[in-house]
Design brief:
The chain is an alpha/beta fold. It has nine helices and six strands. The longest helix has 20 residues, at 148-167.
Length: 214
């Protein structure tokens, strides 16, 4: 079964376009080791690709994507922990200087939690993965008259804040942050508007990049 034509066409464009113009860079990257300074933990959502949003070239950012851009707490129990393993590799082996948790608007995983919708259950992988966000959602107040979209946005951002707290349960992340060798960041991307908002932990508020509090 051949690859989908979209992928084949895209690869052809890459070979004749970006690869041709950056062949020397790719050759250097292939001969050496990757040395990104930034790790981004993003959602699997196909509409919110960090490399596109940050206009990053090959080798510039270390990206891990999972459902709803979650960071689990430090749990060295012998289980399978892909995001935690990627964090360990990025921080301890690659020596990244920044870890960014990037959420986005209209997140399907968050919406499923808020609306208690399919395919979440108590037995499948997604249900288990998203279960902690139910606790986050319960503590996000909903003002009278607040529509579903705004309420989901508040939970999307609260989930990012929760993941930042979970990052600090990893002892080597906490140690490096205390030594000023590592900084943690939370950002949220508005897909429709193409806007990026950043979380100011000192002020406990979200700010549009280039704008005010939102």
């Amino acid at each position: 079964m051949p690859l989908p034509s979209m992928l084949l066409d895209g690869y052809s464009n890459f070979r004749s376009g970006r690869y041709t113009s950056e062949a020397a860079r790719y050759l250097k990257l292939g001969e050496g080791a990757q040395k990104p300074k930034t790790m981004i933990i993003a959602c699997c959502d196909s509409r919110a690709a960090p490399e596109t949003i940050f206009d990053a070239g090959p080798g510039e950012i270390f990206v891990v994507r999972n459902v709803a851009n979650l960071v689990p707490p430090y749990t060295p129990d012998g289980g399978h922990h892909s995001t935690s393993a990627a964090l360990e590799f990025a921080v301890l082996s690659l020596g990244v200087k920044h870890v960014v948790v990037m959420g986005h608007g209209r997140c399907g995983g968050i919406r499923a939690v808020v609306q208690d919708a399919s395919p979440l259950s108590n037995t499948d992988f997604i249900g288990s993965w998203m279960r902690p966000i139910k606790d986050v959602a319960r503590i996000v107040p909903r003002e009278e008259g607040c529509d579903d979209h705004i309420h989901e946005r508040l939970i999307e951002r609260a989930s990012i804040e929760h993941s930042l707290a979970n990052l600090r349960t990893f002892p080597w992340i906490r140690m490096k942050e205390n030594k000023k060798d590592l900084s943690l960041h939370g950002v949220w991307f508005d897909i429709s508007m193409g806007e990026l908002h950043a979380y100011d932990e000192g002020e406990a508020q979200w700010m549009a990049i280039g704008g005010g509090a939102v």
